[in-house]
What does this fold into?
Amino acid sequence: MTHGARHPYSQRMDTDLAALEQKLALLIAHTRALRAANESLRRELGAAHERQRQLTSRMDQAGARVDALLARIPAE
It folds into this structure.
């Protein structure tokens, strides 16, 4: 038997390891893509919260002006 000879299980193991390596690479790629999407969604959510805060403030200001105008209407 020569030193270069491989056992049959060794080839199967190499095939299994190659498949596992391919699956792991795919998992890593998906994880990176999900992290990037998550970060993008976080930024969008932050912007949406800021926009909501601004709109709420504008509505409060408009409500205060309407109340002030209503207070100036003479009572019958």
About this structure: Residues 21-76 form one domain. The first helix runs from residue 8 to 72.
